[in-house]
């Protein structure tokens, strides 16, 4: 008799403990991609950012998200390094960088030159970025149309904060690509290990 009572109690415990866990599993099963059911909705896990199409990217010290800046920059970011293990090598003169451009979140990637400026900051200069009209890059946030923009990024030595300056310009003399007519300028602050503000 005691044997049946013990087995009944064990079965009851298993069923009741599964009740909550199984319900969570069912809700999670209804979420797509990397989303999970949390706080009453399908969303990215904590400490990660929704990159769209149910893909989530974890916070990392090589992922910089916009904190302050013109709203036209959208949820902008800079991703440095091609993997979590090559964030930054002080002996390198270049580093891989991905970034978004404008509210349209047009993505661009490639290697950029990086320099350590004394004991002040790291500097990434990305000049003569051509603005393709069909991408509508930045056009939603600047009043005039420009052919190019220069981007300067200063990253503190702790690799936590990046200050970016976008300078938009037109080529006055297309034969030499030397004379520039600068127009709109945007500034923004980015932080690593966090999400966009």
Key features of this structure:
197 residues; mainly beta; Porin; 2 domains; 8-stranded antiparallel barrel; 1 helix; 14% helix
Could you explain how this protein is built, in words?
The chain is mainly beta and about 200 residues long. The chain folds into 2 domains: about 1-30; about 60-190, Beta Barrel (Porin), CATH 2.40.160. Helix content is about 15%, strand content about 45%. It has one helix spanning about 1-30; strands spanning about 35-40, 40-45, 50, 55-60, 65-70, 75-80, 95-100, 105-115, 120-130, 150-155, 160-170, 180-190. A hairpin with a 4-residue loop joins strand 7 and strand 8 (about 105-115). It is globular.
In short:
Helix content is 14%, strand content 44%.
Structurally, the number of domains stands at 2
- Strand arrangement within the widest β-sheet reads 5-6-7-8-9-10-11-12
Number of E-type strands: 12
What is the CATH top level name of the largest domain? Mainly Beta
One letter per element, helices H and strands E, the order comes to: HEEEEEEEEEEEE
* Poorly predicted spans: none
In one word, what is the shape? Answer: globular
> In percent, how helical is the residue content?
10-25%
Structural class: mainly beta
User: What is the rounded Rg?
Assistant: 24 Å
User: Mean pLDDT, nearest integer?
Assistant: 82
Q: End-to-end span in angstroms? A: 63 Å
């Amino acid at each position: 008799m005691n044997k049946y009572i013990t087995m009944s109690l064990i079965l009851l415990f298993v069923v009741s403990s599964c009740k909550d866990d199984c319900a969570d599993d069912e809700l999670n099963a209804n979420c797509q991609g990397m989303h999970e059911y949390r706080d009453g909705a399908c969303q990215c896990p904590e400490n990660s950012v929704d990159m769209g199409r149910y893909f989530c990217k974890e916070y990392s010290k090589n992922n910089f998200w916009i904190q302050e800046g013109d709203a036209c920059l959208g949820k902008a970011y800079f991703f440095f390094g091609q993997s979590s293990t090559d964030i930054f090598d002080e002996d390198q003169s270049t580093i891989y960088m991905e970034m978004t451009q404008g509210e349209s979140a047009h993505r661009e990637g490639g290697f950029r030159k990086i320099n350590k400026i004394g004991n002040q900051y790291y500097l990434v200069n990305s000049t003569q970025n051509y603005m393709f009209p069909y991408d509508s890059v930045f056009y939603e946030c600047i009043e005039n149309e420009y052919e190019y923009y220069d981007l300067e990024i200063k990253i503190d030595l702790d690799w936590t904060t990046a200050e970016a300056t976008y300078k938009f310009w037109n080529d006055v003399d297309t034969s030499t690509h030397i004379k520039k007519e600068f127009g709109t300028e945007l500034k923004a602050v980015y932080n690593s290990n966090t999400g966009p503000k």
